[in-house]
Specification:
Rossmann fold, 45% helix
């Protein structure tokens, strides 16, 4: 993963910590935590690959999971350590490393893993497969890996609020609809990779992981930035919280999961799958 991506996350480490707390992005956070609670066994060791400043790790420690953190941004790792220690918790390990360095870890080291950022920035399919295959190797049999991709379908919807100038002609729309979209730092927030759920799912299966389920992180609230802001600012917080809760608890709903900004894949590690393919 490039120095451009590393510098980007070093520069915004504090912002990234707070991003998942805002009135809209909290849906992504709540949906991800819902899937972790639903599919991962309690009191297990989770490897947070692409941990950023530890937004998930802190709360998973509070839920009595063991946590190891890895991120390309050394500033994010330092910030995560400060926050975790301030909360009087202790992570197992901190690694200021790229997800492309997972080959340095031994087989069957972790019970489960999160990959909630690296796939956003890897243009090369070979690199993405390397991350996925190594994650499978270092997670124990029957462990769960939750993987996030930026959904090129959902980006069209979110662009109407965030960056409509990116879609000035049919070519821009067609590229997003096709998926497998590789963008430079001049074309996106940094070097980025957007794709559609179908292609992401095939890639995950090619790496030898079994997909148990997948979800749209923003659920039925995808793209509704302004409506949620109004509800958050002007209405009873109980109503707002109900929308967020119901959206996250229904993030796997068939009707919405293909069109959100982030797609979450829940995968199971089946060690025997590789042996079976070699027969």
């Amino acid at each position: 993963m490039s120095e451009i991506v590393k510098k980007y996350y070093n520069d915004i480490s504090v912002h990234e910590l707070n991003r998942l707390n805002n009135h809209y992005s909290i849906i992504e956070y709540k949906s991800t935590m819902y899937l972790i609670d639903k599919y991962m066994k309690k009191n297990t060791h989770i490897f947070d690959i692409g941990s950023g400043p530890g937004r998930y790790s802190v709360d998973l420690l509070k839920k009595q999971y063991k946590i190891s953190l890895l991120d390309i941004s050394d500033k994010s790792i330092d910030l995560a350590k400060q926050i975790i220690e301030k909360e009087n918790y202790k992570a197992e390990n901190y690694y200021a490393m790229s997800a492309l360095e997972l080959d340095k870890f031994e087989d069957d080291t972790f019970d489960n893993a999160l990959i909630l950022g690296p796939m956003y920035h890897l243009h090369s399919k070979l690199d993405r497969l390397e991350v996925l295959k190594n994650a499978k190797r270092i997670v124990k049999k029957d462990g769960i890996i939750i993987i996030s991709y930026i959904n090129s379908y959902g980006i069209i919807r979110s662009s109407l609020f965030e960056f409509p100038e990116a879609y000035t002609d049919d070519k821009s729309f067609n590229q997003s609809l096709k998926g497998d979209l590789q963008l430079s730092s001049e074309e996106s927030f940094t070097e980025a990779y957007f794709t559609k759920p179908l292609l992401a799912g095939k890639e995950i299966e090619e790496a030898g992981l079994k997909i148990l389920s997948y979800a749209g992180a923003e659920s039925f609230l995808s793209g509704l930035h302004l409506e949620l802001k109004r509800l958050y600012d002007e209405e009873d917080q109980t109503i707002y919280n109900n929308y967020i809760r119901i959206a996250s608890e229904n993030c796997e709903m068939e009707h919405y999961k293909d069109t959100t900004e982030h797609t979450l894949f829940v995968c199971k590690v089946c060690k025997w799958c590789v042996k079976l393919l070699l027969i």
